[in-house]
Structures
1.
Amino acid sequence: MKQLLLAVFLLAGTVCFAQSPVEFTTVKHDFGKIKKGVPATYVFHFKNIGTKPVVIEVATAECGCTTPEYPKSPIAKGKTGEIKVTYNAALSGAFTKRVNVKLAGVNDPIVLTIEGVVEDGSHK
């Protein structure tokens, strides 16, 4: 009986904590100081480490100041892809922005984060 319970517990743990089929080189980027009014772009690279093609259903930013671009076609097993994230830098000050990447067949989104400080440039 104990072995059966242990097997059920381990199986449930495997299902609950399933890994993402993609692996990002990094999920956070710090631009440091950037100029106001000059858009800043960072490209997040990933690899399909799963057993079948991966489809990105959608990548959404938390505000209109951040624009993600992502592949619309499936990424084959073992292949790489990229998500380009651009921040418009219209306002001065520190920022932290997130992009939620939803994969087909995966419940939890992958969260990519960009941050930095937009400097006005008028005072030196």
2.
Amino acid sequence: MAFFTAVAMYFVPLSAVAQQDAVFPKATLEIETRSGARHKFQVELAETDPLRQRGLMFRNEMAPDAGMLFTYKRDRLISMWMANTYLPLDMLFIESNGRISRIVENTIPLSRETISSRKRARGILELNAGTARRLGLSVGDIVLHERFE
């Protein structure tokens, strides 16, 4: 009986999170490639712990020019996972100056595998899987947004 109680307690918070309507502020950002091309995205901002914890969980679709930008006040090692995230994503780890330091393409939905920035970063931009390749985005490209210097 204790096992089933523990399992039930584990799933209650997840279902409660799924039912909450998180309100994310929205913004526009651009990515400038080394070739000078610029790509514009409409992003939701995850700037608080509750919004960062929620992220893109439980979503079934995202517009091609949309994304979610996770930002932090200071540089840090950042680790993410795809638990409760149904969309495959490209994750772009961003330094405080806006430079992309790492790109992880085509993450696996619902995976609990840790995805790390590998070095200190200020934020992460999550885009639909395949976007980085389609637009030719690469490490060293610059994310233009007020959260980065």
3.
Amino acid sequence: MSARDDILAAIRSAAVPPAPPAQLPSAPVQQADGLHDEFLCVLNEVGGQGAIRAEGQPMEALLAERLGAARADAIVLRGRFAVAENAAVYVDAADLNARNDIVRAEHLVVIVPFSAIVPTMHEAMRLMPADSACGWFLSGPSKTADIEQSLVFGAQGSRTHHVIFDRGT
């Protein structure tokens, strides 16, 4: 037996048995009033912008108002649900034309149904699609302060990040 075989045999014999998956809290947290306000406040703190589209308000008009000239360069995505505690929106790869849309966009707009908001990531984990091949939680624009400790937006993704809660969906 070679040294390689001895090492591999030792690794296999010391293997840790798989652990059962973590269990989420058993009772779902009830949605409280003010989740949208909390979400929008946190989104603003992380550099994003948000709005709530009123019923009957044309989406294109709202996008033009929020983005101005940047509307032409914006990519609009569908978000499945939002998380109030960290202003994250879950975007599933199945809802995208191309997975790289998220990182190639200069200006990213994520539209979320108004009713699709939960207070915490614990609740968000319950909503994760079991059959999803890939998904992301997006919160605010891409940013870094690696270079000379100067905050730069759009380093590895969008420079602006907008979330629109849609009462029409």
